[in-house]
Predict the 3D structure of the following.
Amino acid sequence: MSERVNEEKTTPTPGTPRTGPGPGSGPAEGAVAAAKAEAVLPSLGPLGMLRWAWTQLTSMRTALFLLLLLAVAAVPGSLFPQRPANPAVVTQYIKDHPDYGKILDSLQLYDVYSSAWFSAIYILLFISLIGCVVPRAIVHYRAMRSQPPRTPARLSRLPEYGTLVVPADAGIPASRAIDDAAALLKKRGYRVEVRDRDGARPSLGAERGLFKEVGNLVFHTALIGVLVSVAAGGLFGYSGQRILVEGDTFVNTLVGYDQFTPGTNFQSSQLEPYSIQLNKFQITFDRESKGKFGQPIDFKADVTTKENPGAPAQQQTLKVNDPISLGGTSVYLTGNGYAPVVTVRDGAGNVAMQGPVVAKLQGDNYYSSVVIKVPDAKPDQLAFAGFFLPTAFITPEGVSFSGDPELFNPQLTLNSYYGDLGLNDGAPQNVFELDVKKLTPLNARNLPTKGIVLTPGTTHTLPDGKGTITFDGVKRYVGVDIHHNPGQGYALFFALVAVAGLVTSLYVNRRRAWVRTGTHPDGRTMVEYGLLARGEDHRLAGEAAAIRALLSAAWPLEEVEGSQPVPSAPEDNDRADAGTRTGAGPDTADSAAPDFIQSTAGSPESKKEQ
């Protein structure tokens, strides 16, 4: 019993030499031998960890994952208002959702495209693509300069295989036949290398479809170009908005914008000093369709532009989806409305405010809200708030509405206030809103003084000698968006290049072909060929048929039983694929397994083998 126990204790681990019981081989020595035989894994270490992380980051799988993650990360930018586009909307959204509005702000969901997490994904994708493309480009460059793989010993093991026999009286030796095959394959776009032309069994290796990988590399390189172009647009671009009333002129300076959003590296010196003057704005309304009667169907703004102060003026037309280009920027028509022209005099009879007031669209038929702030009125500042109706209608209940977008019966309905407007406090205010909490009403519908109702050319006197307001007329205004994106053209170019590279990689197939010739003892020239595809290629059989047709047309052939392509076993296909992918396999045939050329054509043994 004790001997069996000792034998079990001294049994070595699998894969180690077994030491039998002999002199000096006790349990302690067996344990030591087993411990020495155990594999000791080396520690990865900081450098190895960095190398592993770099390998994972620069893999194509990681690049595709980051590309998908970037698309998912951009979704919140369309779900929540973005601060660079409209800060006022973001502020109002936070006020309307006090329970989670500030939480979203802390997560930078109102600044998605400039947030830290979106930038991190963007930079990692950029690094991953570069680390993936550069090594692959180097490897493929070497592959393009290298010769096609060596000729396999047994072409019959390839997925597509065929044989041809040239009669002896044709006068075509094996060396000439291999040259003819090389010329035909070159015409089909193969790069060809002839081996052992003057030997007993000349052969050639041919390869085509290297542009498949080129297209793949171009696609990924173009993606890097798109990323760089978008980044350049975000760094050096800018955008802004401006409202222009008929007769107004916009000069491309910082103070000329109503709202301006600069890029990260924007410099004011980038602004080209061009100017745009709105001469006339015309709207065409539908007057024929029953269901769409009164709807606008066309917008056209006639403008005068100058590239710089000393340049000649040019007459241009600005339309929806038809921007004009000035000073490297694109000017888009984005909105329009009416601007009532008013004159406000203070209690001393002085003109405190005069000019058009932009009315903000609120409802159908250009029903618009109007806010007028008069900080220069004396002795008290004045303010007005109400509505502008292009075609006013009043219901029996006293409700006013606009019945048509055209100026058939324009009317200005206002309430008036006086007091401190708070414009001197330094806090920004919305020009389209009026905070009446600290103001005293003068005219209102619920007051004895009633509200103010004005038509063009009429004047209303304010109570308590505060002044007067006159409705002088109506002008139209337009809203324009001005964008400067230096990377926009490059992004389009790289996007088209990416599509071209993707199409090339999808429709070009990488194939390899081999041809071997030999001379039979009776003088006939024996030819065999085989084809192999790199990856999936459902058109490989058609390519083999096309090559066979070319070879058949080049020589007078002899019909020999068994000269048709010989199907190979599945396991042979796998072996041939594995060998030819690595370029392995000798040029000489395996003597233990004679092929078509070595066999005696027409003999029972050769027919049986084929």
User: Anything to note?
Assistant: The first strand starts at residue 160 and ends at 166. The chain has four domains: 46-142, 147-209+509-609, 215-236+487-503, 238-484. The chain is about 30% helix and 25% strand.
